[in-house]
Input
Amino acid sequence: MDQLAGHVHAGCEGDRGATISALELRGAHLVIANVKSLAAARVTVPGPHTARVVQIGRNQVMQLHPLGPAHPRASSAGLAKSFTRWLLWYPAAAAALFTGLYALLAGVALLAAPKAVLGLLFDVSTVAAGWIRLVPEALVSTRPVHELKSSLADVAEACNPQQLIAEAPSSVGSNYTPWAVAGGVALALLALKRVYDTPSRTYNNNVGDEYDAWTNEGILEYYWGEHIHLGYYTEEERAAGWWKADFKANKLRFTQEMFKFSGSQQPKRILDVGCGFGGSSRWLASQFPDAEVIGITLSHKQVQRGTELAAERGLNNVKFMVMDALKMQFADDSFDLVWACESGEHMPDKKAYVEEMARVLAPGGKMVIACWCQREAGVNGAPPLSPKEQEDLNFLYEEWAHPFFISIQEFCRLMQGTGKLEQVGSEDWTPQTIDSWRHSNLVGVLDPWFVVFKWNPKVWYKVTREIVTLERMHQAFAKGLMQYGLMRATKPAKSALV
Output
């Protein structure tokens, strides 16, 4: 308890007397026992926590589980502090970035036309004209590399420095250096945009590998906490400003709201399909200590991390397994709650995904799915996707290893098509979740040092790609191209099936 001195405050509203007779640490749990009125109990601890009440003997006990390190809240002082820190890093980072880009562009040009480039190096006044003639074609050409190399070499060989100067715009004047720098920066930015517009992780049965990498880096867990899905923002939070909300606590709230939506009451055997490193699984296990919870994922590293976190929290009723959700090894009618939070996006066969979950769902059990969905298109009067919409979707598919998305309505049709489910329903939770995308970027801006101090350019580059993709996701949801779908269904009891 010494470590928490000055940081933990426990009491009861309206009763500041000895309302708490026991306050102790048990492993990773902060336990508050013998609270006179648990409904009025309040506890403040460092960082966001989730609480549950359990009965131990004659005593009611409140247990608090940490969600992870808290991120700085968005405030004038916090933003000013973060901005000041960035001012110290940006000049060096920008210099390194542009130096690298110039080196890259120079290397491309050197390979394409070595004689011309070497000549330019000895005559600064021709640099601007060299950029004008050599680089643009390399950036926009779609021809094979060997043809492009030959073409650039032909262009360079056909022009000596005097001809290049003569063909450059007369307004440039005698000093070409500022124009060369400006042109180089513009071209570097154009090249950078092209790099970030090109997807880097096309789906190729690589979902497990990608999540292994994300788990090893620790970045996703650090910023998103245990719940690696979007958060749930109330109307009041949205009205007050999403940036004022608690980012990680809202993710926990999503899990709680998703359970309410499922309609499940007291599940005894729970399956978490695509469990990540088990945030939802552990929450469900903590809420239903008499239930057995199983989480499955394709990532070995997520199983390892999920198991570690469960042990830290003293949860003995949850376990994690590596298993393909399309070919589950469970018997029919095995679980009375089948839970799938943001896993359907990665499934190459959505129909098999739904059918497998329906197969293992026990009669009378509940199925609930949360998934990023694209809008209905070309069906039931819905307009088809425009070329721009398809282009935007293709990027979202191929940047985060998604084979494709489907609509909320298509999920419902698949659930109804199993012939095993009834009471199929859905809701669009886009308003409640859309702020998560930009909030994800904000917590990184306010607290960038976990990434910065990894001193790994590959990680830095990967994170910058995530920033771009998070914003593109926000825009897709804001435009209505994407929607956040919640789907639920019940498997009829056996008597109803006869």
Summary: DSSP finds 20 helices and 13 strands in the chain. Residues 192 and 239 are 36 Å apart (CA to CA). The first strand starts at residue 9 and ends at 12. The mean pLDDT is 77.
